[in-house]
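Severity: low
Component: inverse-folding endpoint
Summary: output formatting inconsistent between runs
Steps to reproduce: submit the following structure tokens with default settings.
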């Protein structure tokens, strides 16, 4: 047997002994922890209650603290006794830190089981604890062996100021390290979890409340709002049994997409700060204000962001990987198709993002690839639409009727509205209703949204009431608007100006009052965290009101789209992002039913990402530039090796436009 084989065999034997000892210590700690947890949760309280039965997460934390003490003594004085040296501060602090992380890892399944899945039995508590304990055990063994219980000679060999294996891990987080992507993933997961906790079980608007009732089968499914959202919610309810699963899915898509974009930024710039700045997009007040609201506008924005994340990833794919490129194309197209299905007017915003995706996959696609990619997009979108219709069989409402109705009652006088209804062949009841709508809007000064604010609706028919009068309304519009085109233009410009210059929806504070009276829906989120978040968003709206106004994001998008060259390799991406936002906002010029911030949520998200990419390019270019007046010197030593220098944002991309 060679010396190398003997060393390997001895290493395996040592690791095996450590695993066995660690397992015994872990088993003792597990028994102590489980016993303490059940004692705290199930022990009767003096007032007739059940101890900490209403706070299983607190009980989990206390039990884990007891297990920490058992683990410390067992591993230090038995498992790693051959490594034992004087107790130092680094060892204690590292041990406490990894166990605090283990505490969170162990408690997360308990929280998910109780708060999201609604499981509150002793069996569900212990199953959740077992899952969390297994994950925390793997984490503890790895870190104990490599960072906490190091050999005395290794500790003595550390030079002053060095941190041994701990510093090795820290160096992995620094420039050129390989562990930073996992730290980014941990930060993104923590942010997503925190956001989901603050908003749990999700804020419900009037629209999403109606869709939830449809998903629960309490109302027939209609196409007034996108049926795909109802179908997705129905699937989540069937799989998890939790209403809050939809809000959790939103948070996962947002932070998962931001993590992918942050990873791309890290690989291109090797800058921790810039990659963290990408994650900070999700914490920006103009993005955070609607993160927890279950709304079709939010779903559309996050689906487009996910498609952008796929496109930015595709830029980094090495040449020759055809199968990977087509897989990424399908993934991006699925995101784009969902954006169209969940928001009917999203197709204008989707087109530039689709172009961005194709050009990221193939710098010179050619006619055949363009045709194939377009065919995939159309097939997935149309096929998805048919599949959703077959699965939900929605009642047709012809929801677009409210737009010409708005124009008629705000452009024409009540007398002209009645005359137009008679000329278009409306029955007496509808003539009275549409005339009453014109009178009410004038009396109340309602500038838009006539169907909900002025029209005397028959609530027993829900949103299907207008579907029987669509042909009449369309005839009225086509007959009258050409005659009153100046009034129509003035009215549409007035509504569009309201959308651009009136900042609304700065923070969605709670659930719509008409929401379902169910504990899973009406349960208030964490009041302290919610109040802090509300202060953050509303304070930003007070000090920086332009962040919540459409004119600002239209201006940002126009600049992104029209400038010919931007610093860094993302000129094409910036222009297409800006084009997507501009088209989406301008599409509301003839169709905006009211002034609402949610209509500019995607432009705000796209504009925030674009501004960050520009800032990143400027920062890295300045870092790379030599100081003013400095003489250029040839690099020496390791730094002169080109293989050890990471590419930066200002470096021209071989497959993209020059910087």
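Observed output (run 2 of 3):
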């Amino acid at each position: 047997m060679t010396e190398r084989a003997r060393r390997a065999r001895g290493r395996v034997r040592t690791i095996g002994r450590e695993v066995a000892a660690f397992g015994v210590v872990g088993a003792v700690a597990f028994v102590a922890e489980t016993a303490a947890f059940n004692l705290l949760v199930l022990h009767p309280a003096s007032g007739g209650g059940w101890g900490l039965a209403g706070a299983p997460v607190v009980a989990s934390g206390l039990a884990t603290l007891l297990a920490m003490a058992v683990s410390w003594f067992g591993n230090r004085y038995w498992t790693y006794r051959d490594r034992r040296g004087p107790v130092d501060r680094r060892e204690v602090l590292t041990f406490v830190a990894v166990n605090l992380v283990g505490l969170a890892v162990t408690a997360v399944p308990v929280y998910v089981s109780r708060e999201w899945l609604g499981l509150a039995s002793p069996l569900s508590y212990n199953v959740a604890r077992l899952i969390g304990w297994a994950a925390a055990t793997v984490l503890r063994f790895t870190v104990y062996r490599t960072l906490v219980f190091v050999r005395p000679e290794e500790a003595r060999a550390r030079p002053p100021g060095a941190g041994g294996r701990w510093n090795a891990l820290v160096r992995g987080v620094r420039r050129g390290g390989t562990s930073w992507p996992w730290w980014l993933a941990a930060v993104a997961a923590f942010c997503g979890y925190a956001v989901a906790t603050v908003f749990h079980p999700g804020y419900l608007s009037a629209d999403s409340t109606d869709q939830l009732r449809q998903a629960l089968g309490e109302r027939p499914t209609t196409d007034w709002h996108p049926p795909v959202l109802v179908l997705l919610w129905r699937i989540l309810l069937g799989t998890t049994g939790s209403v809050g699963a939809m809000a959790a899915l939103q948070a996962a898509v947002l932070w998962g997409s931001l993590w992918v974009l942050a990873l791309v930024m890290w690989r291109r710039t090797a800058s921790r700060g810039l990659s963290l700045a990408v994650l900070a997009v999700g914490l920006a007040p103009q993005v955070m204000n609607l993160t927890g609201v279950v709304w079709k506008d939010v779903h559309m924005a996050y689906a487009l962001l996910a498609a952008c994340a796929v496109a930015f990833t595709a830029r980094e794919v090495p040449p020759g990987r055809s199968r990977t490129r087509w897989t990424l194309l399908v993934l991006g197209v699925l995101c784009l198709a969902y954006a169209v299905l969940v928001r009917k007017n999203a197709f204008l915003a989707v087109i530039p993002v689709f172009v961005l995706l194709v050009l990221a996959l193939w710098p010179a696609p050619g006619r055949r690839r363009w045709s194939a990619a377009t065919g995939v997009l159309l097939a997935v979108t149309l096929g998805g639409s048919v599949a959703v219709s077959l699965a939900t069989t929605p009642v047709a409402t012809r929801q677009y009727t409210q737009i010409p109705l708005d124009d008629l009652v705000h452009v024409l006088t009540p007398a002209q509205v009645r005359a137009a209804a008679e000329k278009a062949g409306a029955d007496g009841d509808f003539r009275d209703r549409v005339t009453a709508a014109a009178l009410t809007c004038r009396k109340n000064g309602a500038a838009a949204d006539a169907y909900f604010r002025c029209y005397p609706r028959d609530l027993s028919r829900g949103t299907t009431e207008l579907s029987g009068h669509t042909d009449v309304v369309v005839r009225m519009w086509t007959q009258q608007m050409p005659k009153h085109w100046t009034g129509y233009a003035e009215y549409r410009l007035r509504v569009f100006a309201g959308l651009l210059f009136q900042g609304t929806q700065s923070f969605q504070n709670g659930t719509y009052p008409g929401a379902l009276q169910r504990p899973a829906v009406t349960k208030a989120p964490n009041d302290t965290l919610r109040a802090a978040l509300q202060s953050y968003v509303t304070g930003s709206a007070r000090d920086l009101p332009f962040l919540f106004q459409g004119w600002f994001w239209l201006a940002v998008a126009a600049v992104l789209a029209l400038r010919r060259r931007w610093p860094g390799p993302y000129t094409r991406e910036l222009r297409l992002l800006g084009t997507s936002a501009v088209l989406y906002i301008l599409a509301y010029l003839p169709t905006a039913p009211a002034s609402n911030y949610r209509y500019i949520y995607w432009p705000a998200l796209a504009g925030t990402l674009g501004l960050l990419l520009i800032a990143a390019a400027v920062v890295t270019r300045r870092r790379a530039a030599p100081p003013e007046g400095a003489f250029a010197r040839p690099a020496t030593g390791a730094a002169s090796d080109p293989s050890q220098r990471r590419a930066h944002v200002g470096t021209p991309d071989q497959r993209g436009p020059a910087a």
